[in-house]
Amino acid sequence: MRICSLKRVSKQDKYHIPVLGRQVVRFLVTRPDGVYLDGTLGGGGHAALILQQLTPRAVYIGVDRDEEALSAARGKLRHFANIRLVHRAFDETEDILRQAEVEKVDGVLLDLGVSSHQIDADERGFAFRPGVALDMRMDRNQSFTAADILAEYSEWELTRVFREYGEERFARRIANKIVTARAKQPLTL
Question: Residue 29 phi/psi, 5° resolution?
Answer without folding.
Answer: -80, 95
